[in-house]
Amino acid sequence: MRGIMSKSAELEEIRHKLSSIDLLIESFAQFDNGYNYYEEYLEKMKDILTSESSIDPEIPINFISFFKQQADDLELVLGIVPIATKEIDDFWKFLDFRIEGMGEYKNFKQFLEKLEFGHWFAEVKSLNIRKEEVLKYGEGEEDLKDMNIIEFDLIIRIYAQEKD
């Protein structure tokens, strides 16, 4: 009786394993059948990623437009200057920019988040933040005391794949 129960348990375990293998085979078969469909959309996604993350080294208009838009949206005073770098990366092309500005700390923080989660592959090379003292400006002085105004400058590197 014990032998029969032991062999039954082993048989049940083997059935579960076979069932799992059958499901795996079915999944692979479905993927194989839809490979052309997936390949087409994966290629489109790759093209979108490449076009969105690519930056024109000669005239980075889209990238600079991003900064102008963020300056308006977040009420920041931003200045951007391309920096000539001598470093060479064999795989990626890149551009370095110095960004100087002033504004409320919370807005600057949002700006950095948008840069981090934006279209481009970006690396912050250096970041300096200085608290700006709010001087007496006359009327509305109470409102200005609550503001956390900072001056900042950062150097960022934007990586880009070459377009074919």
> CATH H level of the largest domain: which superfamily?
Ribosomal protein S6/Translation elongation factor EF1B
CATH topology description of the largest domain: Alpha-Beta Plaits
Helix share bin: 40-55%
Tell me how many strands there are.
4
What's the total helix number? Answer: 5
Kindly name the structural category: alpha+beta
Fill in the keyword field for this structure.
alpha+beta; 26% strand; Alpha-Beta Plaits; 50% helix; 2 domains; 4-stranded antiparallel beta sheet; 164 residues
Describe the structure.
- The chain is an alpha+beta fold and 164 residues long.
- The chain has two domains: 2-53; 61-160, Alpha-Beta Plaits.
- Helix content is 50%, strand content 26%.
- The protein contains five helices and four strands, in the order αααββαβαβ.
- It has helices at residues 2-33, 35-53, 61-74, 105-116, 141-145, and strands at residues 77-83, 93-104, 121-131, 149-160.
- The protein has a four-stranded antiparallel beta sheet with strand order 1-2-4-3.
- 7% of the residues are buried.
